[in-house]
Amino acid sequence: MIERPDSAVSSVARNLEGYVGFANLPNQVYRKSVKRGFEFTLMVVGESGLGKSTLINSLFLTDLYSKDYPGPSQRIKKTVQVEQSKVLIKEGGVQLTLTIVDTPGFGDAVDNSNCWQPVINYIDSKFEDFLNAESRVNRRQMPDNRVHCCLYFIAPSGHGLKPLDIEFMKRLHDKVNVIPLIAKADTLTPEECQLFKKQIMKEIQEHKIKIYEFPDTEDDEDSKLIRKIKEKMPLAVVGSNVVIEVNGRKVRGRQYPWGVAEEGIIVENGEHCDFTVLRNMLIRTHMQDLKDVTNNVHYENYRSKKLAAVTCNGVDATKNKGQLTKSPLAQMEEERREHVMKMKKMETEMEQVFEMKVKEKKQKLKDSEAELERRHEQMKKNLEAQYKELEEKRRQFEEERNNWESQQRILEQQKLDSSKTMEKNKKKGKIF
Amino acid sequence: MQERTMAATEIARQAGEGARGVPLSGHVGFDSMPDQLVNKSVNHGFCFNILCVGETGLGKSTLMDTLFNTKFEGEPTQHNQPGVQLKSNTYELQESNVRLKLTVVNTVGFGDQINKEDSYKSIVEFIDTQFEAYLQEELKIKRTLHSYHDTRIHACLYFIAPTGHSLKSLDLVTMKKLDSKVNIIPIIAKSDAISKSELAKFKIKITSELVSNGVQIYQFPTDDETVAEINSTMNGHLPFAVVGSTEEVKIGNKMVRARQYPWGTVQVENENHCDFVKLREMLIRVNMEDLREQTHTRHYELYRRCKLEEMGFKDTDPDSKPFSLQETYEAKRNEFMGELQKKEEEMRQMFVQRVKEKEAELKEAEKELHEKFDRLKKLHQDEKKKLEDKKKALDDELNGFKQKKTAAELLQAQNQQAGSSATLKKDKERKNNPWLCTE
What we know:
The complex is a heterodimer. Chain A has 9 helices and 10 strands. By secondary structure, chain A is an alpha/beta fold. Chain A has a domain at 27-309: P-loop containing nucleotide triphosphate hydrolases (Rossmann fold), CATH 3.40.50.300. In chain A, the strands form 2 sheets. Chain A has a 6-stranded mixed β-sheet, sandwiched between helices. In chain A, strands 8-9-10 form a 3-stranded antiparallel β-sheet, with no helix packed on it. Chain A is rod-shaped. In chain B, the strands form 2 sheets. Chain B has a 6-stranded mixed β-sheet with strand order 3-4-2-5-6-7, with helices on both faces. In chain B, strands 8-9-10 form a 3-stranded antiparallel β-sheet, with no helix packed on it. In chain B, helix 4 (119-139) runs parallel beside helix 5 (169-178). Chain B is rod-shaped and about 205 Å long. Classes of the chains: A alpha/beta, B alpha/beta. Chains A and B meet through strand 1, helix 1, strand 2, strand 3 and strand 4 of A and helix 1, strand 1, helix 2, strand 3 and strand 4 of B.
């Protein structure tokens, strides 16, 4: 089921005591919307020959595809192309710019691998255009060229979905509103058709394909109608560009030898044939809702994925789950704050390391100073000791010398005295 | 006014551009599109925000009550407010099947201060805050614009005091500051104080003053034929002279809202008495949606454009090629990362510088230390040398002395020997000459 955004919950409203006038707001909105005009882009996908162009012409009661503008099956292509035709149609004062996107060559090749890729690329490119236009600094009225609805034509094999069908729908259900249709339903009997529809819905559920769902309404009558439509899904259609007269009635239908398969309203038990259901649903009642779902769901998906890729820049997506509520700019702001904190931390760390190193170095310097001091002291002491020793030695020497010298003097004196005496004696003694 | 007409046809033309018109051969049914759109809007509910700017006591709250036929909350304010504040209240109203979320914002204390230079600032700030909130929501990665409660101001009712002469300078200044941010609808408040003739002159004076000062007030749109006529007529009645009242007075056999004076009764909804009905018609019944649209497509876009340009976003690169969103964001991001890295680098550089300086300092200190000790060492060496010299000198003296000593001793020894031999001789002589007396 496609998730729809919650609509505003109405709380208890005040009662007004008289006429104010804002009940006219819806008329104001009506007026403005008519003046603006409407846009709608419808994509049709399916193998050639399934009656796509006929159906489009029937749906819009116009020769969108004609001899001058041939439909996709007439334009034989080697590879899948995606082409668009734009027409302007007016009705009841309302102007609608209708863009039909078709895919000639889809499913027609022998090897159809990746034939959905051009389709995906087209849808994404329209989203991208819108995103870029929305993100400009100078914005102007943005034309809405996004694909609002994709009609997928299933061949009426009667058995079930083909692998290509399943693959295509799986790949596109997240990007666009997919409405599967059984084409050329006049080749199936009513019972076969019922079985076929059941089988298809079963397979769709098995493969978890999210086709377009009608929104629930509060109105009881509308809910009944919607439930009836849901039971008929996928719608089986018959298209015809030819008007045939049947029992005096002019109807659009296909003439066979065994009768006319009418496309228009067949009153059978009050049931309408699926074509009318399709037209009513697609154009008369749910066109706006298809646009809203495209805008609020598919486009927003695309946008958030795109922007997440830009801001996360390859970082693991699971880590950033919580950050998706911010805008990329807010995220940058937060990153800036983180960075400031990181820098502060780094700064304090560096500061610490710096201080520590300085302390270390200073300590070393101090130590070496102390060491040198010590050594110097020691040497000084050493020197002083030596000095003292020297002094002592000198003193001793001096003392010894003095002693000796005085001794010598005494001796000298003695000698002198003795020689004198001898002289005297000599003088005296020689007489003897 | 002309701009708007051009814009509308532009849109129509652009929509049809490249599209060929084809005729329809029957009723397809897409003429129900406007109804589908209307149904969706009705289901979703509408939202409208009014800002009332005016001096205290001009009857702003009363007028709101009268316009919306209900009593809104709030006490009448005093005149002693220190600054201008904005008080906003949100109400859920319903009329037939239409739900309206109405927010009424009142300026409190406007015009009460002695110095009113900054009066307009809080109003402008408030309006910008609402724009900013919307912009932030719009820029989020996962956004919910669909259910976002739009708080942007769609209409600003500017209350002019009924002096009967001209606009006050505060009015002109404020309106000039607001005219590019919000749709301004000027109204003459408490207009039952002015007589009819004075009123006409007053209106002309106000309009001419606004024009001459270049104040752009909201013009009711005339591009849609259904309402062009009534809108253009009303444009000529601006500014509306209004009277508000929540009290009812019996006139004839009806109860009407009116103000009763001794000399008569002013009926609020009587178009001869005041322009209240015109205001209600224009503001609510005819142009509410247009006011909302103008706010979104003109005022908000202007704010957004300025804000984005301020942040450095551009639409084209230097070669005038258009930027894609991704490129813009990536460019911004790269710039941002570059800035951060630069800051980091700067810090590192600063640190490296400091480290270098400190290292140089310490090296200096180390050098000085070594020099000091070199000097000491040298001194020490000198001392040592002196010591050595002294030692040597001593040794020399010692040696000299020793030599002397030994020489003297030798001599002495010789003398002694000679003496002793002489003595021996003498002794011998004595012996030989016993009569030699030797002593």
